[in-house]
Amino acid sequence: MQISVKREEILDGISITKIIDKKFKTNVIKVMFITELSENDSPLNTFISMLATSTNSKIKTNFEMSDKLNALYDSTFRANTVTYGDSQIIEFTIGCIDNKFSLYGEDILGQLLEILEDSLFAPNVSCGKYDEDEFRLRKKELIDMINSEINNKRYYAFSQACRTIFKGEPAANPHYGSLETAENIKSEEVYKAYQKLLKTARVEIYYVSPTGEFPVKERFKDAFSKVERSPQQSKMKALSPIKSETAYVEESCEMLQAQVVMAYKTHYDNTDVCGLLSRILGGTAFSKLFVNVREKQSLCYYCSSAQVQSKGMVYVVSGVENENCEKLVKAVDEQVEAIKKGDFTDEELYNTKLYVVNGMRSRSDFPGSLASWYFSGYCLGEIISLEEGIEKVMNVTREQIIEAANTLVLDTVYTLKADKTNIGGDEEDGE
Amino acid sequence: MENKQIIKDELTGNECLYIKHKSGLDIFVCEMEGYSTVDALFGTKYGSINTCFKTANDKEYTTVPEGIAHFLEHKLFENEDNDVFELYAKTGASANAYTSFDRTCYVFTCSDNYEESLKILLEFVQSPYFTQETVDKEQGIIAQEINMCDDNPDNVVFFNTLKCLYHNHPVRINIAGTIESIAKIDAELLYKCYNTFYNLNNMVLIIAGNVKVDEVLKIADEKLKMCENNGLETVFPKEPDTVFQKEMVSKMSVGIPIFNIGFKSEPGSGYSGYKAELEATVASTALIYPSTVLYKSMTEEGLINTTFSSEVFCGDGFFSVMFSGESEHSHEVYRRLCEEIERVKVEGIDKEIFENIKKSIYGSVVREFNGVTAIGSVILNSYFAGVSPFDAMKILKEMTYEDVMKCIIERFDSEKSVISIVEK
Q1: Which residues in chain B are contacts of A150 at CB distance < 8 A?
Q2: What is the β-pairing status of strands B104-110 and A125-126?
Q3: Which CATH superfamily is domain B247-423 in?
Q4: CA distances to B9, B22, B385, B386, B389 from B17, in Å
Q5: Residue A320 and residue B295: Cβ atoms within 8 Å?
Q6: Which value does ipTM take for this structure?
Q7: What residues of A are in contact with residue B290 (Cβ under 8 Å)?
Q8: Do A103 and B258 make contact, defined as CB atoms within 8 angstroms?
Q9: Same-domain check for residues A214 and A290
Q10: pLDDT, tens digit, for every residue of A356-392?
């Protein structure tokens, strides 16, 4: 095995995992801040991540930041926020080609790491407020992002469905916050949220490299040592309460194809089993939904399922004609019932395992994907190697799949119907 | 008799082996030490633009319905005995296919049993089985795929740009066709297209990652059927230099209006075409580089946001540069962009920006060689462009400031530009 993995705690609530594989041509560093998901702070944290990747005390504007990253051979500095259980993860990632490929002997990783450090520890702030111009531009960007969510109909439908699926839970709140929140966001409150994040979040750092030569651990240890810290726990697993009766919600949007989201919930506590169950249902091109709903009934182009382990949910999404929505819901439910009754072969189970295992092995070829594997292990409370993970998947039994399937309850059916009233009629303005 | 040639990039140390197989097929194998994954791709030079063609045996050209290449791709996954996905299921591979303007590709990715998966790939692509019943069944699925694409504003704004830029070239039609055009497809037409374009002399196999050349060639020898070159000719209707119409506006549910601005220019081919593509990439990036006065002023005035970007879109008989983004004031963005182009033609682009962009593209090319799938794509794109897999590095190294300025002067003509907008 040529991959070497070493994790160590560098300060209270801060750990670093160094992953070395000499085949890589790039270096990737991920810094994950883990904090409580909250209606107030989460949109602010998202905004902090947008500001951090645009500006810091040395690189004052997004224009300069882009210029600098280009000059560092198309290096990347990105941020992303995701929900996990009742936690929010604010993820910062830098990536660059290894120094040995530089044309003029530049220390690419060194310079890039400095940018990341400045953005995390020395923001573009004076008198407790972010630089006014950058703040205004990023605020517009956030508002634009919220407005543009409707452009991607599948994502939009899922996001709308989450309001019902997780009603009364932090996960019901929109990912970027509401338009109203974004419009009223204040520089001082963002800076306060930044200070709180730095102080209270748990931090997981990943350094994936062909050599591991760079003193990443020492640099972060030094930087975090200067911060007053009081790390706090947040719930990484927060199983969603199951509704006593299925909630049916129907809305409409100007489009051609209806979107259907079906959320099944379970409190069955085994990620590997529920992951395989979801794959058997609709996670491969030989799954129940693909074969029976798409291929045999020709109802749709896509009908797939996925698992959200931290919330105890398996959900199905599909795009169909308005008049076929009910037919689709019935067809999906029939396939879930079939699995509950054990109507799947040992071969189907074995093939699904092979498919999942193939995907897991492939992770070792991608630096970012390797880091994500170890981070998801951290989130699950069980950090294991890919090989150990593969063994766990292969050990799942048919009985466990049936047992887990029988705990699935249809919690929510969300339908975004296609409103075709005003569709058609392009305005063509020819010469 | 097979021809073999090692193709190497000195700068990154990457190499692959090219084999002209006796069956007529071009094969590229890239052994990558230390990788777990295998990525294989079996492609034909047949895409949505190839709607009119003939072989040496045909007296007349055949014209087929729009979307048939894509339809054929779907139908090839069903053979006489079973569904191809069921076969792949036994190997654990993740299989898929796609059709674009100029190609149809069948792919799989796996980390075990690649030999078995490769056998499946080579077998099913060479074993068509179409009946009217299965064709009818597929029409419902593809109709939903077409609806899905038509609900995607990015897709709509892009195709509307092509409809504005091109009078006759079939690049202006949707890859999947329309619900009406796919209704005209039958089993006989599918066989006609299959027998014309799925000739191994018109195809390529690319396999990269945890593979061995000898094992790949053994399977190729066993599975590939000898093919006579059928003398395929594809033709396109004559395309004027001018644009078809200056503007198109569509109404859809979007948050903020989105736009595409397209500049049409002379298509190229082979090495010079690929060089032109890279020059246009540098040129378009330089024009809207974030530190330019244009980009800064338009951002500060709220005319554009960070989605504003450019891309070069070219292929057999078409070449255009696209600028896309979100704006409440798309026409003003268009006006400013054209104005900037005229200024740059006289005053030139910033030399520091030019060097930064070259370094940036070099970095992105090195990065592509980090991944198995990306290497397969690099080889495929080079193959379809008619150049060697690592020519991008060479072209980039030799590209001068003057080359890029010449490109801006020749390929960014406001008279041959259009705007497409999707708004609420």
Answers
A1: 253-255
A2: unpaired
A3: Metalloenzyme, LuxS/M16 peptidase-like (3.30.830.10)
A4: 12, 15, 18, 16, 10
A5: no
A6: 0.92
A7: 62-63, 66-67
A8: no
A9: no
A10: 999 999 999 999 999 999 999 999 999 999 999 999 9
